[in-house]
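Quick one - inputs below.
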Amino acid sequence: MSPSSGLVPPVAAQGPGRMPAAAVNAMDLRLVRRAAGALPGEHRSPGVGTGTELAQLRPYQVGDDVRMLDPAASARTGEPHVRLQVPERALTTWVLLDRSASMAFGTAERLKSDVADGVTEVIGRLAIRRGGRFALTTCGAPADRILAPKGGRAALATMRRLVGEGVAPDGFVAPDALTHGLRRVAGLARQPGLVVVVSDFREEGTGWRRALRLVATRHRVLCAEVSDPRERALPDAGTLVVIDPETGATAEVDTSSAAVRERYAAAEAARAAEVRDAVRRAGAQHVALSTDGDWLRALGRALA
Amino acid sequence: MSAPLAISLAAPHFLLLLCLIPLGACLQVMARRRRRRHAVRLPATPTLAALARRQPRWRRWLPATLLGLAVAALALALARPERTVAVPVERASVVLVIDTSRSMQATDVDPDRIEAAKRAALSFLDKVPKELRVGLVAYNDAVHTILRPTEDRDGVRLTIEALEATGGTATGDALAGALQSLRERVGDRGGRRPPAAVVLLSDGKTTDGQDPVEVARQFGRLRIPISTVALGTPDGVLPGPYGGAGGFPVPPDPVTLRRIARASGGEAFEVDEQQELKRIYERLGSRLGTKPKREEVTAGVAGAGLAFLLAGVLLTLRWRGRVA
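Output:
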């Protein structure tokens, strides 16, 4: 167990699988926001900040940064003028990674946490392109880590080390972990950018929807919901006792009865549909990744 | 009194099979515990918990309980239970001997002794099985009415209702008359004697005729028991000449009657009120005409076991979709 954060590497971790460089190179992150009005230039685009390229010189308006005052232009005209630069299109990508005990579950090719690690790796590689910055925060762990926005390969190294620590141990309950994580991202991410939420969205409460709406007002949000086929449908395995990895609650179920299996599948489908609708209503994009099948292709389709 | 439905077992060692039931229950508990030990990790447990709440608890245990009951019933059937029933004796005869002497007019037994005796005899007729032959001997100075044991109750009934109380008490002669009527019956067949019994009701000392105890000994040799009933209270009196008090005392004679009963192998009763008299007659009626017989009820118990088994299997099929 890692002493600082209390995480354990999950037993039976398979690794994210093959991530062919060609496939990753074909993907790209884009920050696309629809213009609010019909006429171009009507509203300020996001990301106006300091750069190096001159955009314009204009008279000073109340609210402008006084450091931008250009002495030469002000002396020439007698009025204070400010110098505005072309904003750097440096994109900051935040990733909120769910590290709760329920992620260490998988029955197909890999665990859910393996898929989450793979998604983080791919997003990290895409984010540091063109001088972009990458930031990471975890939720659901005994001690949540924050990786400050950093660019270059150093960010990837730190991210890989953080991800390799593992998930929360069984029995650790973090109620409203996703809500707290989203609020933290909303508080930390000042510049509009891209936020990727990688989780299984199995939180009991519904507070995460409001926090998600809060984040989606400023950033582009992509919610990657990771799930396992056995969470969607149960096989015929006789009478089972199932135990929740986080809370330790047990339930006895007779899976040999077709009626029980159908009811479970219907309940799970309803829950998944509810999550998808909530994400879309919050103004975010939703992609469903499964532990069987090609998660990389699904992620690429979502980012396109 | 023998209980009419006493159950006995012909092969009780098979009841050891009942140990299978707690063994089965133990096995089921152990299987459940093993399932809990090897619980499966599933993050979707809250969904399953919400689903599982729908089934009521008793449904889980009902089929197992029914199968346990089936095992118990089959083990009991293997032990061959037998039931003691009272079956009517074939060709049995009972003779009612009733004293109709003048002392029976006493009113110490409500309304008077002869009325109480008549009512008790009529309720005796209702209680005996219809295959039983009932005869009647009514006497005072001498035997004045003899009805041979017959299955026709109406004649006996009419005769009892017409009895009146006058005259002395010749108990011995009455018993000899009863023996005669039974012998005629008995002599019909030859070979084995059909069973017979006599119920004697008297209220006083014998005044005329032969010694009743001698005759009772003959009854004893022939193995026909005389059940005697001594009717009346020790201070019973005949009503006076003008209906007032101060009449002739007529106490009953329980000593002689006990001797008669002992000599013949019957029972002696002493009665001083009508309800008790009726009860005694009813008891004798249901006892004298029947004998206990043991019959096996294995088939019934095995059928019950099969019914429980079918019920358990059908319920499991309905609720689980498969038999086991």
